[in-house]
Design goal:
single chain; 317 residues; alpha/beta; 11-stranded mixed sheet; 9 helices; binds threonylcarbamoyladenylate; binds magnesium ion
Length: 317
């Protein structure tokens, strides 16, 4: 299969929308990471996402729609969920909502769950693509399962060239780590992202708990599997003094092989994280080294940063 590299021009978006509608796989840029989209009503199309990624079939997908209203056929909305959508959509928050009794979402999207993860992405190109497709679009991150998520079109091509029909190249992603996943019924964050527990509490006025990872064998968000987002080289965290056999990723003024943020800004570090991990992994491979990462802040988006780094460092099963 040839993977067509499209732009975010109106004519290319129209073409990409037609491809999605007719059951093909199209990668596209969201504000978090690139997603690999398929028509969420089309069981064959959704199944081919799992094949292209090598994704385990028990891991459900997030459905992307241009507006909250476009989910009403398949998602059940509580007042609390609606308040969160009003506050944060379009934006990097995924809401896990009960399915409606009657819906046409393909079973492969849901992987047996009675809830559905819904997200309204922010980029103009994703919005235009969803409108052009005219259907809900199931989209995991556009990487091979277990690999580092892609934040540029080149990353997607490195991972999936020849396995998908097209990619809409719209430049690098701004946020750089996947959306916060929140379940309003349990008042629980299932995956940390740039939208924090404090921000959610401010909207709902209710305390928020966080999935504690103690349940890794039947994860309610398999993005919570301990090894995930992983480079090939072993990775050591909170390193102040790297050894000679380590590629060093620093935080702040450039004194390593790479820095996550020259200016020590957690948002910048998040935006750079996956690209830097990919480059460090390539350098480590070239020189037979491992990777060491400096301590990064734990507040705000720093919590999600540390979460992804911990998973990248976890032993691979
Ligand atoms: O930022 C993002 O969320 C990106 C962009 C492309 O939108 N997407 C993304 O998808 O990160 P993916 O498939 O890599 O991660 C989706 C996570 C998985 O951990 C999955 O288990 C969880 O969402 N998930 C999907 N449906 C769920 C549900 N009904 N209940 C709980 N977790 C669910
Ligand atoms: Mg992913």
């Amino acid at each position: 299969m040839k993977t067509h590299r499209l732009t975010a021009s109106a004519s290319d978006i129209a073409r990409a929308g037609d491809l999605l509608k007719s059951g093909h796989l199209v990668a596209f840029r969201t504000e978090t990471v690139y997603g690999l989209g398929a028509n969420a009503y089309d069981q064959n199309a959704v199944t081919s996402i799992y094949t292209a990624k090598g994704r385990p079939s028990f891991n459900p997908l997030i459905v992307h729609v241009p507006h909250a209203q476009d989910s009403r056929d398949f998602a059940t909305w509580s007042d609390e969920a609606r308040a969160l959508a009003d506050a944060f959509w379009p934006g990097p928050l995924t809401l896990v909502l009960p399915l409606t009794g009657q819906h046409s979402i393909a079973p492969a999207v849901l992987a047996g769950n009675t809830t559905i993860a819904v997200r309204v992405p922010q980029t103009a190109s994703a919005q235009a693509l969803l409108h052009a497709a005219g259907c809900p679009v199931a989209a995991p991150s556009a990487n091979r399962s277990g690999h580092i998520s892609p934040t540029t079109a080149d990353h997607v091509m490195d991972e999936l060239n020849g396995r998908i029909d097209a990619i809409v190249d719209d430049g690098p992603c701004g946020v750089g780590i996947e959306s916060t996943i929140y379940d309003p019924a349990q008042r629980m964050i299932l995956r940390h992202g740039s939208i924090t527990a404090e921000q959610i509490e401010q909207v709902t006025g209710q305390p928020v708990s966080c999935y504690d990872g103690s349940n890794d064998h039947s994860p309610s968000a398999p993005g919570q599997l301990s090894s995930h987002y992983a480079p090939s080289a072993p990775l050591r965290l909170n390193v102040v003094e790297p050894t000679e056999t380590e590629v060093f990723i620093s935080y702040g003024a450039h004194h390593g092989d790479f820095t996550l943020s020259e200016t020590e800004t957690p948002e910048e570090a998040a935006a750079n994280l996956y690209a830097v991990l990919r480059r460090a992994d390539a350098l480590a491979f070239e020189h037979g080294k491992s990777i060491a990462v400096a301590p990064v802040p734990t507040e705000g988006i720093g919590r999600a940063l540390n979460d992804r780094l911990t998973r990248a460092a976890a032993p691979k099963s």
